[in-house]
Amino acid sequence: MLLRVAYGKSLNEIADVFQVSRDTVSKWLQRFEKKGVQGLADKPRPGAAAKLDATEQALILEISSNYPRRPSEVLDEFERRTSKRISVSTLKRLVRKSKRFRPGKPK
Question: What is the model's pLDDT at position 68?
Answer without folding.
Answer: 86
